[in-house]
Design a protein that fits this description.
Blueprint lengths: L2 H19 L6 E9 L2 H13 L3 E2 L3 E3 L10 E9 L1
Antiparallel strand pairs: 1-4, 2-4, 3-4
Length: about 80
């Protein structure tokens, strides 16, 4: 597991720990994760987070144009109970 992935999981556990003691609600919240430099890096992070029991969205990219991929960054959402 790379350092970046470990950091992502640590941040998630800190962000979501208050929700574990909050009363159950029917609402679903989401948090955007990224930017990742490659689609593969985003996919690996999403897979690790899914393995921790969270639902994730598909991966999307932002920035750059078709002829310039160097500015492109990749993101995904994590869904959790509010």
């Amino acid at each position: 597991m790379k350092h970046n992935s470990r950091l992502s999981i640590l941040v998630l556990s800190l962000l979501f720990s208050p929700s574990a003691v909050a009363p159950a609600q029917a609402e679903t919240c989401s948090r955007r994760m990224g930017p990742y430099l490659t689609n593969d890096a985003a996919a690996a992070a999403a897979q690790e987070i899914q393995g921790a029991g969270y639902e994730t969205s598909g991966i999307w990219d932002e920035g750059g144009i078709v002829s310039d991929w160097s500015n492109r960054r990749y993101f995904f959402n994590i869904f959790f109970d509010c």
